[in-house]
Amino acid sequence: MTAGSAAKEPFAAAAPCGACPVCRAALPQPFASIGGRDYWRCTVCAARFLDPRQRLAREAERALYLRHANDPDDAGYRRFLSKLAVPLLARLSTDARGLDYGCGPGPALAAMLREAGHEVALYDPVFQPDRAPLRATYDFVTCTETAEHFHRPAAEFDLLMTLVRPGGWLAVMTCFQTDDARFARWHYRRDPTHVVFYRETTLRYLAAARGWSCHVPIKDVALMQRPVGHAATRE
Length: 235
Prior knowledge:
With about 240 residues, this protein is α/β, with parallel strands linked by helices. The protein has helices at about 60-65, 75-90, 110-115, 155-160, 185-190, 200-210, and strands spanning about 30-35, 35-40, 50, 95-100, 120-125, 140-145, 165-175, 195, 215-220, 220-225.
């Protein structure tokens, strides 16, 4: 099955959706229509995403987020987050200071990094909405199980990358989309708050487009490093 033949239902979108929200490339292609929800694919960065006109209202999203109960002391949750924490910690100096962006109601990753000796600030638009931490810069910024919720991912990545100091790291964890044939049944797609789906190549593209390196130590984790002396600007 080719990337463009994943749709199981007639594509319902009446008009093109505009530019890719991930990389801003023009003319994304129809990808799949599932249960009345239309998905597009970008031929440049390889992202798949829900038609922006079909996203939940922010109030409805917030109601679903409030059901989250990620316990920082839950051993299973910590094992899950260790996929990112272990390779990131191996790359950090002992006095590195970071930000957990999209930390959720139970910032377990921040707790793990603090236990390893690092100072970690928190930001989450629902659970930690104080934007003061976004006025600082950091040796590392983590973004775990958050990027798939972004309505404006290109702008979010622009922001995230300005928060990282030269030589620092942006650590992203999201379930990579790999199999078009299984997209309709994929558990990640079924979460109505998940609106954009990244491939490994997508995150490598976003890093390279900004002059950063990208390391993928394990599936679903991308560690992007800002070069020393690299200047970043916000759009």
